């Protein structure tokens, strides 16, 4: 299609803490990379989290959700901070994020964990094991044991107090998350590992059956299966064997955190949450980092890489996504580091400067 024809509306939700700092930087990079590829991006900024609570009394104002739902993609910074620590659910900034996910109907959470050659020493694993790791965990986000019913507290027939939860997956829930994962694997190295506990759990038996059945629609993808206990072990023993992993809500919660720890760089890790249609939600995995907020110390690269995921998985703008990823790599090659990834011999910079350095390279690379 013609260059000028591609234009999109992006909702920006800076949120709290370092959120506004990293989103401001990522917005400039996103805008510039888009423009270089003939993509026009229009931005609308809205309140969410603690800043929304302060201004409106709720963590997700209707106006924010309406804007997000009507846009093509949502870029979020971070939510929360000491200021809003409370046990009252409706006054929790984090409730705003849960409501936003539910409102957008995003059921697939994509979490890449790549060990960049420039940051291999930050890995929690030995260099030989960490080198070249590039994994994507696709986690089912809206089903499984976190939502299954019945759940609650009770008493068993011996009079002992019990707590109970239920793992439930329907065939259609499995089918839609598996489809996302096959498509993601297709955009990567063509390998998909489905992680379950099909030797013990019925929900996992159905999971494995449905994923296997779908494989015939994706003959170009190499599908394998692994039990979750083995997967947890293999992730630290030999993480290079994995490309894309697809798994249920609870296993994905655990394995995506495990995979991200391999990289050792929380300020570098992006994420995406997508649904069947409608806008996806793109955000760094780190929190609001109140300890460094407002000091121009935050690493904006996780949010910049989230913007690249927004282009790839949210808008289908692969070229602009690649530009951003290449620019991040090149900026690290030039030796620029924020405090969280600093090592002797590199150049310590702040959030804004890091953004400027990425912008400089966005133009020259692809
Ligand atoms: P959450 O808000 O999700 O509960 P958390 O409180 O566990 O998150 P973060 O807010 O992510 O954790 O912060 C953990 C530590 O990592 C803090 O010391 C913070 O300063 C640091 N950190 C997090 N994100 C960044 C970043 N983008 N750049 C630099 N340091 C960061
Ligand atoms: Mg926190």
TrEMBL record:
Protein name, per record: 3-isopropylmalate dehydrogenase
Highest classification ranks of the organism: Eukaryota, Viridiplantae, Streptophyta, Embryophyta, Tracheophyta
The species this protein was found in: Zea mays
Cofactor notes: Binds 1 Mg(2+) or Mn(2+) ion per subunit.
Catalytic activity: (2R,3S)-3-isopropylmalate + NAD(+) = 4-methyl-2-oxopentanoate + CO2 + NADH
UniProt EC number: 1.1.1.85
Function: Catalyzes the oxidation of 3-carboxy-2-hydroxy-4-methylpentanoate (3-isopropylmalate) to 3-carboxy-4-methyl-2-oxopentanoate. The product decarboxylates to 4-methyl-2 oxopentanoate.
Family as reported in the entry's similarity comment: Belongs to the isocitrate and isopropylmalate dehydrogenases family.
Gene name per UniProt: LOC100283376
The protein's required cofactors: Mg(2+); Mn(2+)
